[in-house]
Amino acid sequence: MTKTLLVTGGAGYIGSHVVVELVRAGYCPVIVDNFCNSSPRAIQRVEHLVGQAIPVVRADVRDSTAMLRVFKDAQDSGQPISGVIHLAGLKAVGESVTKPLTYYENNVYGTVKLLDAMDQAGVASIVFSSSATIYGAPEHLPYTEGHRVSPVNPYGHSKAICEQVLKDWSICGGGRRAVALRYFNPIGADHSGLIGEDPRGVPNNLFPYITQVAVGRRQYLTLHGNDYKTPDGTGVRDYIHVTDLAVGHVRAVEFTQNQQGFTAVNLGTGQGTSVLQLVEAFEKATGQQILCKIGPRRQGDIAGAWADVSLARELLGWKAQRTITEMCADGWRWQSMNPEGYGQEV
Ligand code: NAD
Ligand code: UD1
């Protein structure tokens, strides 16, 4: 029987790519999303891409009644949900500093309520969207999963608390199991160009800013500092193609079938790329020129961050496949085919 999986936040940037890879791997995803940071049009695009309808429920993961109904409806239709991939959450670091309670309520309380609904429905397996941001300032690089957890903003704390909640929940027995995937910097888009990242307002992150400069929505990119102790002075990060990241979720679901308790795994490439190197790679891959101006460092930024990816290979049998050039070319395909993102298309 085809396995049915609940994907919370499945209309979002990463969730939409996860849904595509789940279908490609033979799973039946059911999406729950409240669309607070996404568009239903993303799901229409996913359906077009995979050539099948995807069940979607507009609901908030904090709404126990709605969540229990999702589990029950799936059970009653003969396609019981066997596991959950929990991506629903808020992710803007700056906003989390000004609205910390909103972040704790959505991310932490949302996770607690979801686990409670899973318990009531008898669903024991969860894969969770965590973040490398929980490590904070690096004691050593690459970050291993055993690195100290020391987040520096409410968003990061909310993810670290969720991991603790998952750990405590999963060791209660009853076959409960949780995998926290600590994402590094997902960029790019599905190769089709049909789905991609569509941030609301001014992008906080580097890659969507670059693509918006290229498409003419922004005049220039500000380099947040060029005096770091890195080879060219700009910040170094571990960029990972969002499709590779999505495939990592499929492997994590497979992994949960044979494990108990809690496991945290880094998802990155293990390679560091500087801001200037990413700009250069983008220009080379796309033929677009990106005007850059040097600005001050961004508060809270670190010089460099990249992953030790050996655990993902060992436990999940997963390794990122796609190059920086592919990340740039695929991300540009999405942006150039959809200059205003999902926009007002019906
Ligand atoms: P996104 O905002 O595009 O997707 C999140 C989705 O969750 C959106 O569709 C939103 O509408 C939905 N959502 C939020 N709160 C909800 C709630 N209470 N109930 C139901 N739906 C809700 O973000 P993304 O980039 O796809 O990130 C997905 C997850 O991965 C988030 O949890 C984020 O914190 C985490 N993450 C993202 C990154 C990144 O760089 N994008 C890095 C590390 C971790
Ligand atoms: C940021 C978040 C992190 C989150 C991650 C999600 C902060 C401090 N950190 O991390 O918590 O998990 O996004 O992917 O917000 N840059 C520029 N100009 C820009 C934008 C970024 O030079 O307009 C630089 C940054 O200084 C950094 C690099 O580009 O060196 C990457 O930035 P970004 O994409 O925001 O990712 P992170 O800083 O790794």
Explain the overall architecture.
The chain is α/β, with parallel strands linked by helices. It has a domain at 4-188 and 238-270 and 305-320: 3-Layer(aba) Sandwich (Rossmann fold), CATH 3.40.50. The protein has helices at residues 13-24, 40-50, 64-76, 93-98, 100-121, 154-170, 206-214, 242-256, 275-286, 310-316, 324-337; strands at residues 4-8, 28-33, 56-58, 81-86, 125-131, 177-183, 185-187, 221-224, 236-237, 239-241, 261-267, 273-274, 292-295. The longest helix is centred in the first third of the chain and has 22 residues, at 100-121. It is globular. Bound molecules: nicotinamide-adenine-dinucleotide and uridine-diphosphate-N-acetylglucosamine. Nicotinamide-adenine-dinucleotide is lined by residues 8-9, 11-15, 32-38, 60-62, 87-91, 106, 110, 129, 131, 183, 186.
CATH superfamily of the domain at 4-188 and 238-270 and 305-320: NAD(P)-binding Rossmann-like Domain
Structural class call reads alpha/beta
CATH topology of the domain at 4-188 and 238-270 and 305-320: Rossmann fold
Instruction: Note the run of SSEs as H and E.
Output: EHEHEHEHHEHEEHEEEHEEHEHH
What is the count of β-strands?
A: 13
Share of β-strand residues: 15-25%
User: In angstroms, what separates the terminal alpha carbons?
Assistant: 34 Å
**Cα radius of gyration in angstroms:** 19 Å
Give the spatial strand order of the biggest sheet: 3-2-1-4-5-6-11
**Biggest sheet details:** 7 strands, parallel
Q: Can you tell me the CATH class of the domain at 4-188 and 238-270 and 305-320? A: Alpha Beta
Approximate shape: globular
* CATH architecture classification of the domain at 4-188 and 238-270 and 305-320: 3-Layer(aba) Sandwich
- Average residue pLDDT: 97
